[in-house]
């Protein structure tokens, strides 16, 4: 799995780009490429957990302008190897 942590500001460009970004995330979730995604409670950033390899995550991020929009910073992108995880159905 790949975990992507984002940091946000209240830049209007980010807020304007968010609906299209969330639609992309919904599609990735339906495809099984994204396990979890959501903002921190204070909306200072978000965490996304992808189930695909690093190359695919890199392509996903390159195809979604949200990741380079003003007000969005990628804080970290790390491979995660959980030993406990939900079963895929």
Which helices and strands appear, and what pairs or packs with what?
Elements: E1 2-8, H1 12-31, E2 34-39, E3 45-50, H2 54-63, E4 72-79
Antiparallel strand pairs: 1-3, 1-4, 2-3
Description:
The protein has helices at 12-31, 54-63; strands spanning 2-8, 34-39, 45-50, 72-79. It contains 2 helices and 4 strands; from the N terminus they run βαββαβ. By secondary structure, it is α+β, with helices and mostly antiparallel strands. The model has no long low-confidence stretch (mean pLDDT 94). The protein has a 4-stranded antiparallel β-sheet, with helices on one face.
Write a concise keyword list for the protein shown above:
89 residues; alpha+beta; 30% strand
- Please state the oligomeric state of the protein chains shown: single chain
Work out the radius of gyration: 13 Å
Instruction: List the helices and strands in order.
Output: EHEEHE
The N- to C-terminal Cα distance equals 17 Å
Q: Assign an overall shape.
A: globular
Number of strands: 4
Mean pLDDT: 94
Per DSSP, the total helix count is 2
Supply the helix-strand structural class.
Answer: alpha+beta
Strand content: 25-35%
| Helix fraction bin | 25-40%
Strands of the widest sheet, in order across it, are 2-3-1-4
Summarize the biggest pleated sheet: 4 strands, antiparallel
Low-pLDDT regions: none
């Amino acid at each position: 799995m790949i975990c992507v942590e984002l940091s946000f500001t209240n830049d209007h460009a980010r807020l304007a780009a968010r609906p299209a970004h969330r639609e992309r995330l919904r599609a990735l979730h339906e495809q099984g490429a994204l396990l979890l995604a959501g903002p921190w409670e204070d909306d200072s950033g978000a965490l996304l957990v992808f189930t695909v390899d690093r190359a695919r995550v890199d392509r996903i991020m390159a195809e979604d302008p949200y990741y380079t929009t003003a007000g969005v910073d990628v804080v970290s992108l790390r491979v995660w190897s959980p030993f406990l995880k939900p079963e895929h159905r």
